[in-house]
Amino acid sequence: MLPRRSYTFCVTLLVAASINARSLIAQGDTSPFRRLDLPAANEYRTGAGRPGPKYWQQRADYRIKATLDPDKNEVRGTETIHYVNHSPDALPYLWLFVEQNLCERESITNVLNQPPLKFLGSEFDFSCQGFAGGGRLAYLRLGGRGAPQAELKRTRYGTTLRVELPRPLAPGASIDLDLGWSFNVPRQGGGRMGHDGALYEIAQWYPRLCVYDDVHGWNHEPYIGAGEFYLEYGSYDVAVTVPANYIVAATGQLRNADSVLTAAQRSRLARARTSDTAIAIIGKDEAANISLTRPRSTGTLTWHFTADSVRDVAFAAGPGMRWDASGYHGILIETLYRTTADKWVEANRMAREAIKYFSEQWYPYPYSHATTVEGPIEGMEYPMLTFVPNSPTREDQQWALAHEFGHEWFPMIVGSNERLYPWMDEGFNTFIDLRNAANYFKGTAYGDSIEQHPLHLAVEHSGVTEQPLISNPTEVHDLFWTGYQKPALMMQTLRFEVLGQARFDAAFREYIRTWAFKHPTPADFFRIMRDASGMELDWFWRGWVMTTAHLDQSVDSVRRESEKGSVIVIRNRGTMVMPAELELTFTDGAKGIVRLPVEMWNLGPVFEYHLADVRRVRQVVIDPRQVLPDMDRKNNTWKE
User: Fold this and answer.
1) Could you give phi then psi for residue 609, rounded to 5 degrees?
2) Which residue in 228, 205, 94, 96 sits closest to 161, CA to CA?
3) Class of domain 553-639
4) Is residue 11 predicted with pLDDT exceeding 50?
5) Which of 405, 263, 248 has the alpha carbon at shortest distance from 323?
6) Given pLDDT bands bounded at 50, 70 and 90, which one contains residue 3?
7) Can you say how many angstroms the Cα of residue 549 is from the centroid of all Cα atoms in its chain?
8) Which CATH number fits domain 439-546: 1.10.760.10, 1.10.390.10, 3.40.190.10, 3.30.200.20?
């Protein structure tokens, strides 16, 4: 037992220590290096950013029989969904997307009629452009039990549908749903599907299961245009019936080529698969001649496709198309386009080079073909299939083709939730596109400058209305910057100025490999990049993703410390921290480079660098290569 006086003294010390600790904690809370507030690691997702020992995800397999009827401008079909509950939860109901209702008269999209999003010189119109029509669900019932089952009770909310089950779907159990449906095709629906005369590009066209995951439960955010998609992986067996004079391109392998292609086309495709250069499957002079391009000219033909480990399926169909193909490692690279598409003669080479670069640099392309179709849609991606318009310039054409194929990696392979986090989809894709475009146009003014494009946009788009990358895309005013260009700049900066290329590339490849055909969250990405690179990066993600922090580094002063050196005072005037690079010019005309790690800011916004050099410093420039998004370069130079 302590004497009373000593006891009081100790209590006073403890209280003082407690107050001091709280003060330090409060100070620590403002540090740019404090830990991000991420969801706690668990048995599903580890602290290392990887799937845990009990990670699970649902599976949805689809069998679809559909008919495209141009005379009625209608797609109708039947569908069986086989859904497997891998979760530990019993599911009393299911949620489906019915995105054919995007353009119904009372839909959010039609009622709000929001203005187009501007992307530099382009506009993306996610409205329905006056079209008012939704999907028609003929029936929805349990399947797989022989005799037709009773209709399942369901309630639709715009583009989502809640389906009540007769009994909860137990963990490990599966269920089959049978559906019949139809809808009329808008001229352009939400900027992502539609038709131009007889050419149809069909997507978001069949009822699909929403994702049920360990993070949010059901992910049923409504589809209203700007936010894209988040879907389960599974297998697809799809039969599409079209007029006999139509050519069809789709997700999956064509299983009945003997029935829908001519002998000459099959022979040319076989040669194309091993050819480095494009072979005309349907040449310019053949495109309008049905007798040369189709097994028969009247009636209908049914095209049969299958695919596995994909999260969606889409198709395009139309008459009179040119069709080029080449090969890369057994993958068929296909370009289909109308004879009026003047920029598409080079499209196959552009497409092949993109698939080759992304495969060799980041992760091998896993599917049998990569097909792109020219048409009215400004640019959209689906597994193995993209929709790309004829562009005004060769450079624009290459960018659009390669960008949509880049989506085969993000989010078709790495299945992030692009409806919530477009920076993990559009942003990562734009990042890998930049070097691909630079390689393709190497030696030209465009090729030698394209990688600096996001940096040049930073000052213009980093104003008071800027929003964090983590923002929901339907609430973002400047999606071009927030969803595409800023995250690309972020990844370039991390690669070249923070981690270094080799260190970054190894970590980013690990992220892709680990989360291929799975569902990563932002926290998973942050954690795996830290774990694989060996560098604490919470400060980086806070500045770039979680906030709208801005960078402003300055050289405040230089003073002579002694005959043996100088002190260079630099300041972090902004809210973002980054490493620093100094270019020193001495009075004898010699120059030197000093690189300082981000830890220089550990003790606050002012850092004194002690230069051990007898020479006198005449000038100091911070960020001399101008590779960082510094918002005020007027204070970047000190001169004696």
Assistant:
1) -95, 125
2) 96
3) mainly beta
4) no
5) 248
6) very low
7) 23
8) 1.10.390.10
